[in-house]
Records
---
Amino acid sequence: MDKLESFHQDVLRGLKDHPKWLQPKYFYDDNGAALFQRIMEMPAYYLTACELEIFRDKTVELAEVLHVQQEPFDLIELGAGDAMKSSFLLEHLLREQADFTYMPIDICGEVLLTLRDRLNRDLPNLEVVPLHGEYLDMLREATEQSDRRKIVLFLGSNIGNMELEDAHGFCRTVNRRLKRGDTMLTGFDLQKNPHTILEAYNDKEGITAAFNLNLLERINRELDADFNISAFQHYQTYDPIDGGCRSYLVSGTAQKVNIGGEVISFEANEPIAVEVSRKYTPLEIDQMAIETGFAPLAQIADSKNWFVDAIWQV
Ligand code: AVI
């Protein structure tokens, strides 16, 4: 099945369900990627600055826990993007003359080419092997390419976009692909003042709303649909008990939407669940490590203690 056909089927499956849902992985067409870039630049969206601070100010600590001087290794980054944060680690490793290959994985080929060109220019001594595709497929390819020790980076609180059970399943699969002694470093957003969290996902400028609504625009554009976008509103919640920060698109009016020949009915005020951005406690993070076959080695936090990079070993 080609990409457009799976997008079509996933959209219909979610919108025929009760309650309706759509998968957040479809946010990131060119428009969505540009809007996400603007989200990361918003002061209220603290996650990027916190993790950047960890990689900038605690590089030595990260490198020590990852045992980068021990033996040659492959440093694999799931969803590398522009590798802004990991570049601090890469520069440090080159300075320390660590023996390693950097393997950025990304679903977007264009992003990988830009990253490779930038790294070749800025860090000419770095060996870069870009891998284009889905995280887990490419991780398998990386483990088949060489049997060097692996260090896997999964930054940005991307794990937060999975429901708890799916996050466990994902970590278990990564664990199965790795060997004893390999490590995984994952960025987790921590539970904190609920207002701070809600403001990060509910900015007054409407950038997050535009990011979410772009998903319906994308469906209109690519799947020949006729959503009345202006009738939809972005609605965000945060539950400080379970850590679930959830976004919905709510149809203000009753409407019938034609998606490539299939009609989907909306009642007035009917929501579509579009994304969870789960927030964790330090204890839950260690529990997740243990339950998915890892030993937790360290949690390295930013100065506000809002975000941690957790390092686990197989
Ligand atoms: C990509 N991901 C970690 C972001 C998050 O914080 O959940 C996506 C996002 N959605 C709205 N704002 C940012």
---
Amino acid sequence: YAAKHTDAGFLFYDPKTDPHTQQRLQLSSDLRHALERNEFVLYYQPQINIHSGRIIAVEALIRWNHPEHGMIFPDQFIPFAESTGLIGPITEWVLRTAIAQCKTWQMTGMEMRIAINVTARSFQDPLLVDKLESLLYGGGNRLPPERIEIEITENILMVDIEHGAKAIRRLRDLGVSVAIDDFGTGYSSLAYLKKLPIHTLKIDKSFVMNMTEDDNDAVIVRSTIDLAHNLGYLVVAEGVETRDALDLLAVLGCDLAQGYHISHPLPEDELILWVKNSAWSIGESA
Ligand code: C2E
Ligand code: MG
Ligand code: MG
Ligand code: MG
């Protein structure tokens, strides 16, 4: 796993910082150039079906390969991009790249789904569905919309539930599914989400990482899986770092697992090798 956390401290987003400081201006200008200069790269982290042991999806995770500061992780620039409006073109780049990648895999027989993260602003973009549609159907070969899952956090929905519900319904009408990411860290409850046509619930890694040591976390994971299943959602556990955690998730009936125990996020070429050589081979979708 080549990517290391950067020590480029000045790039950290700090909401307390005056928006007009030199650092923010520098970051903003660097970010603009990042797109022009092709400095973004997508890494892909496998999701396996816990019961069949097979890879059925990947999550696309953006990195910024900064010429001076090295690999910069999304938590250090996505919130900034969101707050400044730079997120629009970044999201478009992510969607275009991820969908093109998925089409390429499809041509070589790798029929994996791809999960793509979007921020509140991008999710609320009234053109999101149209953009997805033209990416899926454009450029010669078609990608079935069922291959795409859009990940949003629960807090996006809390801002405006009506609007959020409408946006989810339009995606579902297109055939694209929606996952709630980092579930358990926000302010919503399953009772609140149950009216929404969500497909997948991703249990936040903070609960999964400690579940074999911390009984409270294990209880949270167990009850989230049960409630989610009763509401008809597919459940993904993220942050699966050990064999013990994976075994416990299997006992609890969790559907999919994602985490360092299975694989770190990988650049495209390494992902291909991983898929070819690892014990988890491509399987039917869940
Ligand atoms: P996320 O969507 O919840 O992604 C999961 C994060 O957990 C990733 O961090 C991943 O590398 C990390 N992770 C995976 N397995 C494990 C594990 O076993 N243990 C631990 N401790 N961590 C694990 P990453 O790649 O740094 O991404 C951070 C966040 O940035 C993502 O959280 C997502 O919210 C956001 N993000 C990533 N890519 C994009 C993107 O293309 N667009 C947008 N809007 N946001 C993105
Ligand atoms: Mg995610
Ligand atoms: Mg998450
Ligand atoms: Mg997260």
